[in-house]
Amino acid sequence: MSTAKMSWPEVVGWPAAQAVTQVNTDRPDVAIEVLPSGTSVAPGFSSERVRVFFDGTGSVEATPTVG
Questions:
Q1: Do residues 67 and 59 make contact, with C-beta atoms less than 8 angstroms apart?
Q2: Are 8 and 64 in contact (CB under 8 A)?
Q3: Which pLDDT belongs to residue 33?
Q4: 33 has which bridge partners?
Q5: For 5, what's the count of Cα atoms within 13 Å in the CB-facing half-sphere?
Q6: What is the H or E stretch that residue 36 is in?
Q7: Distance CA 61, CA 9 (A)
Q8: Beta-sheet pairing, 31-36 with 49-54
Q9: Which residues contact 40 (CB under 8 A, 6 or more apart)?
Q10: Residue 67 and residue 49 in contact, taking contact as beta carbons nearer than 8 Å
Q11: Is Magnesium found in the keyword set (predicted)?
């Protein structure tokens, strides 16, 4: 069973760049996609990806998760 971190609820409201730094510190093995909220993304799960969605002020809007 993996003990790797899978979600980052603590970064909601943070500036996107700061959130990316935190995710990268916790999980340097995943690719991080930084996207404006409402962006259409391809469906499907990837254990090697974390998407960080930010709002109009550049703050993280939703909990980033692996997938």
A1: no
A2: yes
A3: 97
A4: 51
A5: 17
A6: strand 31-36
A7: 10
A8: parallel
A9: none
A10: yes
A11: no
d(CA 59, CA 19): 9
Could you tell me the pTM of the whole model? 0.91
Percent of the chain having pLDDT more than 90? 93
Q: For residue 57, what are the contacts with CB-CB under 8 A and spacing of at least 6? A: none
Q: What percent of the chain has pLDDT over 70?
A: 97
What are the φ and ψ backbone dihedral angles of 39, each rounded to 5 degrees? -65, 135
Per domain, the residue ranges of the chain are 30-66
Q: Which of the listed CATH numbers 3.40.50.12500, 3.30.450.20, 3.40.50.300, 3.30.10.10 matches domain 30-66? A: 3.30.10.10
